[in-house]
Amino acid sequence: MYKLINNANINSARYEKVFDKFFPYVKDRLGFDVDFTLVFESDPENAKKFFAGTAHYNPSTHTVTVFVDNRHPKDILRSVAHELVHHAQNCRGEFDGEMETGEGYAQTDAHLSKMEDEAYLVGNRLVRDYEDGAKIKNEKLYEALVKRLVRR
Predict the structure, then answer these.
(1) Nearest to 7 by CA among 61, 67, 78, 57
(2) Which of 37, 55, 132, 151 is the most exposed place for a label (fewest CB within 10 A)?
(3) CATH code: domain of residue 15
């Protein structure tokens, strides 16, 4: 489903544990059928900027690149989810044709603006819904454990 390239040399095991469950959930919700590559990138100079780039998607290679320096894991997950919405859009053919993605593209191009709106809304909601579902499962497991211990 995905290939991880860790150019940032961070311990990716923590992330992969979540990704291995989150990505099938996202794939099911978004309906894409093309595998993707996820790249962890380090750029300390980028991380110093207030309005730094956080992630981007390359539709021709189906690659999501996320900058990981000094970021909370859930923030990284949100960025990846946003870019996976772009991946789903690409799989639906919405990246076909000429597109100018220079500065201000989301404000000046109606089609790209709509795509960004979907990526922000759906990407964030995917993380929230997945997180809430994981918490509910953990609460149910915790409650079952407590009930079992109380019975002893």
Answers:
(1) 67
(2) 151
(3) 3.40.390
